[in-house]
Every structure is written in C-alpha cells, then in structure tokens.
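Researcher: Structure prediction, please.
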Amino acid sequence: MHILVFGKDGQLGKAFKALLDVVSPTLVNKPVIQYVGRSECDLSHPDAIRNLLTQLQPNLIINASAYTTVDKAEIEADLAYAVNAKAPEIMAEFAAKNDASFIHFSTDYVFDGEKYGFYLEDDIRHPLGIYGKSKALGEEAVIRVFSNSAKGRYAILRTSWVYGDGSNFIRTILRLAKEREELKIIDDQYGAPTSSDWLASVSLSLALNQQGDLVKFPSGIYHAVPAGAVSWHGLASLAVESALEAGAILKAKPASIRPIRAVEYPLPAPRPMNSRMSTDKLQSILALYGGHFSSTAQSYNDSNKDPGFPHWEGMVREYVFKLASDGVI
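Model: Predicted structure follows.
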C-alpha cells in the first residue's frame, strides 16, 4: 500500500500527517506514505504531477492541496484553474487508469448560497467567483474521468470554513481581539466551521479499513462538515468567549463584537450567503464502509442508531483551548 498526500504544508495536509503518524503503525498492512508540497511538485505544472504519479505509483491519492486565496483568484484566474481544476483531473486520470483510490476536497463555494436550507450533493452548482468556478470545474473533471473508466474510485468531499494548524478565520479573530476593543463581523452568512483534524479522520475512515487495505466505497460527491451552522459573527463570538475562558488576555469581549451585513464589508470576490450542507449521504456510507480511524468515526460506525456527526461548537472550543494551552493566543 502506497499513500500519496498532496498539500503537506496546508492545514489539511498537516492534519493528515498528524493522523497517519498515529494510525499507520497500528495497521496490519503498514503503508508507505509520502507527502508532497509545492517545492516537490508544483500543481500548476501538469507534467510535474504526471511524472510524480508515474514515479511513485500510489494506491491512494489524497489531494489536500488547493488554490484557496478567494479574493486573489479574481486576478489570478489561470493559476486558480490550473491548481483547482486541471491538477485534480490529472490525479483522477492516474487513479482511474491504475485502479487506485482518489480523495479530493471541494468547497461550499461551488454553490451560490441562495438556497433555503441545507444543500444536497446533487444540487446544481452555481459558483459566484473564480475560486468557486475553478473548484466546480475540478469536480466535473474528476467525475468525467471516472465515468469513462471501470477502475478505481473517487470521493469528492465538499467542506467549508476549515481551521487547523495554519492561518484561518479563528486565529485571525483572536489576533484582532488582542489588538482592538471592538470588532465588526458579518452576521448574515452561514456555514459549518470544520476542523481539519476531524476532516482528515473522516476521510481516512472512508478510504482505508482497520487492516490498512483500500475500502471499495461508492464513488461520488459527499458533504463533509460537522453538525449545525453559525454565522461568522457567531463563530467570532464563540472563539473570543472560549479564549477568555481559557485565560487569554484580550481587549475585545463577546459583547463588543458588532454584527454587520455582508454588504457593509465588500470584498473582491462574492461569497455564498448560505453554506449549510447536508451530510446524510456521507454518514450512511461511513456506517457501511468506514474504517474507524477516529473516536468520532468509531462511535458513529459502531452505533446501531445513527447519532450523526458531532456539532461544530465543541470542536471549536477544543481548538481554541488548545491554542491557549500552546501559548498561541
């Protein structure tokens, strides 16, 4: 078994390494694992991707890399399309030809956010900006490649508002809360904050069994976010509240975080107002095929009664408490 993880320097890539460092020694069939970042393989160069895949011959490809600078994508469209659309197509082509598994991550930005309620996997894509359009094209390319092959399998995991070991909204808010007594945060855009550690564990539970063999899960798109939803303002308020409970010294307090509308904070790229996504499909698949690589996946898959995914709030609190204990805030 050979696992190749793209995006080793990002939040999700780091989460996969941390998880696999713990999991891989426990597997009967211990995999060879390699992590690559931009210095090892520039995903804007198709031949570099093809050469690496040919050289390494992975059985499981995890694409945790992406062009995610949403606003900058509006002026770097070619780069965004190369990394978010063409690169996953090339990875999919290798997997489909060589009977490998491919785990690819997408985003709530493939939707326009105008739907009332939770998005389903087969809802029509209607991205608003270049970032979302590039990710939507990546999804379509992966599906197209595998539709023409009887080999391999793929999972496109759509997620939202990811945080982990790196720059993210929560860390930005806590930094600003140390500098300012008042913050103004958007309160009419909703989504589910997603821990990169949790996302990695759910993904690995889909891809591998407890022996370390590939799971033959059904190919398709799956939504992978925790339960519940919140606005950016609600997330900022909880982050500050949790940091204060953990003993952090902040100038801003939850009561001094003012809610504003998105139109009051214009940005170069439009954002979906509603990023809530149903996870029923992924939960059902994990119940049948999951490899049990986290306490969350274990409790879920061992249950005869579907308890659902954990709520976002508890994981955010835990994340902020750890930032405080590590001296980051």
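Model: Residues 77-98 form the longest helix (22 residues).
Researcher: Thanks, that helps.
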